[in-house]
């Protein structure tokens, strides 16, 4: 399965993802292909909508203390729901769908998420810090929300201007 990352301002990123009800080989192939795309793009998280699949599916692989992302640490979440949240953390976020742009975003520091794994088993995960931030970021994608939507009005206007300039420069250099 060949997947490509959808980049802002593509309207597909605003689509609300649908709940998964079939836990079959096609889902497993999507998860495996998403992992390859995420790793090849140096990402730590990826939502299915970012590769044009409007399904409530996301993967996360936080680097360990040695900055390695071993597959054993991969988290696959299907139909995730945040059931508890508290605290606040500000983290500099980036996004594979908004390349080369990073901004401080405020999120909940501690969350509890209910989800299903690739075999439809129900799981619960307590997350804090970067893992909490990454899960919230990816769940936002499933709801058609991008991290840039959380910027203040003035910062968003500045982003739009910078991003258009970067896109122009990218086209010129091709």
From TrEMBL:
For the ligand (Fe cation), the binding residues are 95, 137, 141
EC assignment: the record states 3.5.1.88
Q: Which GO terms describe its molecular function?
A: metal ion binding; peptide deformylase activity
Coiled-coil regions listed in the entry: none
SUPFAM superfamilies (UniProt xref): Peptide deformylase
Q: InterPro entries recorded for this chain?
A: Peptide_deformylase, Peptide_deformylase_sf
For this UniProt record, give its keywords in alphabetical order, as a comma-separated list.
Answer: Hydrolase, Iron, Metal-binding, Protein biosynthesis
User: Where are the catalytic residues?
Assistant: 138
Provide a GO biological process annotation.
translation
The cofactor note from the UniProt entry for this protein is: Binds 1 Fe(2+) ion.
Q: Which cofactor does it need?
A: Fe(2+)
- Class of this enzyme: hydrolase
Q: Its catalytic activity?
A: N-terminal N-formyl-L-methionyl-[peptide] + H2O = N-terminal L-methionyl-[peptide] + formate
Q: What does this protein do?
A: Removes the formyl group from the N-terminal Met of newly synthesized proteins. Requires at least a dipeptide for an efficient rate of reaction. N-terminal L-methionine is a prerequisite for activity but the enzyme has broad specificity at other positions.
Give the family from UniProt.
Belongs to the polypeptide deformylase family.
Q: What is this protein called?
A: Peptide deformylase
Q: Which organism is it from?
A: Sulfurimonas hongkongensis
The gene it comes from is def
């Amino acid at each position: 399965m060949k997947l490509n990352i959808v980049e802002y301002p593509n309207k597909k990123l605003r689509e609300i993802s649908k709940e998964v009800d079939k836990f079959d080989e096609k889902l497993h192939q999507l998860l495996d292909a998403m992992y390859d795309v995420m790793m090849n793009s140096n990402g730590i998280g990826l939502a299915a909508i970012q590769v044009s699949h409007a399904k409530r599916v996301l993967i996360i692989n936080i680097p360990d203390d040695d900055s390695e992302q071993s597959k054993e640490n991969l988290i696959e979440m299907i139909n995730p729901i945040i059931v508890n949240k508290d605290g606040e953390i500000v983290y500099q976020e980036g996004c594979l769908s908004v390349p080369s742009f990073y901004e401080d975003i405020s999120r909940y520091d501690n969350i509890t998420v209910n989800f299903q794994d690739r075999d439809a088993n129900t799981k619960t995960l307590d997350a804090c810090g970067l893992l909490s931030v990454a899960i919230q970021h990816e769940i936002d994608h499933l709801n058609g929300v991008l991290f840039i939507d959380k910027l203040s009005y003035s910062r968003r206007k500045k982003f739009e201007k910078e991003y258009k300039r970067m896109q122009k420069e990218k086209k010129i250099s091709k």
